[in-house]
Specification:
Blueprint lengths: L9 H9 L5 H12 L8 E4 L5 H9 L4 E5 L9 E5 L5 H10 L3 E6 L9 H22 E12 L4 H9 L2 E7 L10 E9 L7
Parallel strand pairs: 1-2, 1-4, 2-3, 4-5
Antiparallel strand pairs: 5-7, 6-7
């Protein structure tokens, strides 16, 4: 169910009308329209999947397996496999690999709970992005794609440079659905240079 906190938000109302669990669905749809990160038949891992709106979009984009992971339980999404756990922990990573030994696409919309201290929150967001990147590099097939949410600030350029070391094409993208005044953005990385050969 869409978050009642944003009941007056235009995209929130649209999400409710179109059956999405949150307005975040439109961010992924815009990323996909601009960058084509998901292809038909791709195996996709969605990190920070709650409340499930990205999974709702993903299951319409690929016929391949879709796995969502979050600290909180996510209501079932037809066509997706759901795991509850911390994706930075080995036990959760092992469970992911049991279901999805390799992925064509890894997405992370995960974000820390915000404290209101911008520098601290940005550092935590970058650290979460680094964890997502580390996991992605162990799962992605060669040529695979990676999308991660982060926040612009002092540590942003260093993280961006690290992503660029591993992908042929890297772009910073701010969907129009992002709230005004937010430092949130997405790093869209395509064509992973490492990994195993695609199946």
């Amino acid at each position: 169910m869409p978050n009642p906190r944003w009941a007056g938000d235009r995209l929130h109302r649209r999400a409710a009308q179109e059956g999405y669990r949150s307005r975040a669905a439109y961010k992924l749809r815009e990323i996909q329209e601009r960058h084509r990160v998901v292809r038909e038949g791709d195996a996709v891992l969605d990190l920070g999947a709650a409340p499930g709106s990205w999974l709702q979009v993903l299951t319409t984009l690929t016929r391949g397996p879709v796995v969502g992971v979050d600290l909180q339980p996510v209501a079932p999404v037809e066509g997706a496999t759901l795991l509850v756990g911390d994706f930075s922990e080995r036990v959760t990573q092992d469970r992911i690999r049991e279901i999805l030994p390799a992925a064509s696409v890894v997405l992370s919309d995960a974000a820390p709970k915000l404290s209101g201290h911008r520098d601290y929150d940005q550092a935590r967001a970058v650290a979460l992005g680094e964890e997502a990147l580390a996991l992605a590099m162990t799962l992605l097939t060669r040529g695979g794609n990676f999308v991660v949410k982060t926040f612009q600030g002092d540590l942003f350029e260093e993280f961006l440079a690290e992503v660029r070391r591993h992908f042929r094409s890297v772009r910073v993208f701010r969907p129009s659905a992002t709230r005004k005044g937010s430092r949130e953005c997405y790093i869209v990385a395509r064509h992973f240079l490492g990994g195993r050969e695609p199946c």
